[in-house]
Write a structure and sequence with these properties.
Strand order of the largest sheet: 1-2
Number of strands: 2
Number of helices: 10
Distance between the termini: 20 Å
Low-confidence stretches: none
Order of helices and strands: HHHEEHHHHHHH
Radius of gyration: 23 Å
Mean pLDDT: 81
Largest sheet: 2 strands, antiparallel
Length: 292
């Protein structure tokens, strides 16, 4: 079943995801990032009941742990010493900075999981095909590249396991040889399909003359209201971020985590922007109950 957020014009959806990704990078504060993680998790629950997150859970957890661990290993800066190991200083600042960057990256990955559910190829092509046709195709192919390669690798793994070849069993030398065979098969498979796609696009005359769209999206009053809402919130947050609010300075001296009045105002606007899909669904449910 389609959500109310999915029914918005593609421009609204694209603006939300682009703005949310930018804010996850800009607003490096533990409280901001913690709240954003919860909001993005709730958005994925609404859109696909965490099916996409489950597929990426191992990668996301590994990335988070690596970033939290690696930063203190290579960075000794900071005044708050946690402990020393072989003359290497492990500081609170390094752990906090690594954790903030890890939450930012994980939030962006989770956000793009939701993006792949809402922003279908037809929506993306509708937005960019007429003005930037090559960019639209390149962006669409790039965004589907990782999940497509993952599915292909799973298919190849199943076929190879049926022949008695596996990268999880046996000696290291044999497992490495099998892994290289997986990669070789994957590249060959991808190149053959790329040639077929290029031939198909050429045969259909892609890029010659004006391009029509398979699906047409008409902008409505609700879309205009959503665009104004998102643009105003995004502008407010960015202006305050430039002024120094909504970010925690780590080096040379870590600031207090306490939020000032303006920091709190930015946090509210930040939550209202990232929680836009949740507010849309909640508003729809409330309206349905009032009309019932």
């Amino acid at each position: 079943m389609r959500t109310r957020f999915d029914r918005f014009h593609p421009l609204v959806s694209f603006l939300f995801y682009a703005g949310a990704a930018a804010l996850l990078i800009l607003m490096l504060h533990p409280i901001f990032l913690f709240i954003s993680s919860l909001l993005v998790l709730m958005i994925n629950i609404l859109h696909d009941r965490l099916q996409g997150i489950r597929r990426w859970s191992v990668f996301m957890l590994t990335t988070f742990l690596l970033m939290v661990i690696m930063n203190p290993l290579f960075n000794e800066r900071g005044r708050h010493l946690l402990f020393e190991l072989n003359d290497h200083r492990f500081t609170l600042e390094a752990v906090v900075y690594g954790g903030m960057n890890a939450l930012s990256i994980i939030g962006i990955i989770a956000l793009f999981v939701s993006y792949n559910v809402i922003m279908t190829p037809n929506k993306l092509l509708f937005l960019f095909a007429k003005i930037l046709p090559q960019f639209a195709v390149l962006l669409m192919l790039t965004l589907r590249f990782i999940p497509l390669m993952r599915r292909r690798l799973e298919d190849i793994s199943l076929v190879q396991k049926s022949k008695g070849l596996s990268v999880s069993q046996g000696r290291w030398g044999a497992r490495m040889k099998t892994g290289m065979l997986y990669v070789q098969t994957l590249l060959t498979f991808s190149l053959e399909e790329a040639i077929q796609t290029a031939d198909s696009m050429k045969a259909r005359g892609y890029g010659k003359g004006p391009r029509t769209t398979y699906e047409y999206f008409k902008i409505k009053q609700s879309d205009i209201a959503a665009l104004i809402y998102l643009l105003l919130l995004f502008s407010f947050i960015v202006v305050e971020r430039i002024s120094g609010f909504g970010v925690l300075t780590i080096y040379p001296i870590m600031e207090s985590w306490h939020l000032s009045i303006l920091d709190t105002a930015v946090l509210i606007g930040y939550s209202m922007f990232l929680g836009f899909p949740i507010l849309v669904e909640a508003g729809g449910m409330l309206r349905w109950r009032l009309l019932k």
